[in-house]
């Protein structure tokens, strides 16, 4: 039997999971943009 506390915790968990996935997608996009820039900077710096 689900108590109100269990339901609330479950809902919060799923909201957190969705938020994390969305943040991960944003981070992946930023990484895709940032990585070529880092490679270019590394080449310029001669690393």
Radius of gyration: 20 Å
* Residue windows where pLDDT falls under 50 for at least 5 positions: none
Share of β-strand residues? under 5%
Q: What's the overall geometry? A: rod-shaped
How far apart the termini lie comes to 60 Å
Structural class from helices and strands? Answer: mainly alpha
> Biggest β-sheet: count, sense, barrel?
none
Please, what is the average pLDDT? Answer: 79
The helix-strand sequence is: H
Count of distinct strands: 0
Count helical runs: 1
Specify the helix fraction band.
Answer: over 70%
What report would you give on this structure?
There is one protein chain. The chain has 47 residues and is an all-alpha fold. The chain has a domain of 30 residues. The chain is built from 1 helix and no strands. The longest helix is centred in the middle third of the chain and has 42 residues. The chain starts with a helix and ends with a helix. The mean pLDDT is 79.
Short structural summary:
The chain has one helix and no strands. It has one helix spanning 4-45. The longest helix is centred in the middle third of the chain and has 42 residues, at 4-45.
Which features does this protein show?
single chain; 47 residues; mainly alpha; 1 helix; 89% helix; rod-shaped
Write the layout of secondary structure elements.
Layout: H1 4-45
């Amino acid at each position: 039997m689900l108590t109100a506390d269990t339901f609330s915790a479950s809902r919060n968990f799923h909201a957190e999971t969705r938020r994390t996935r969305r943040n991960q997608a944003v981070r992946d996009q930023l990484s895709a943009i940032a990585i070529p820039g880092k490679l270019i900077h590394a080449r310029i710096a001669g690393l």
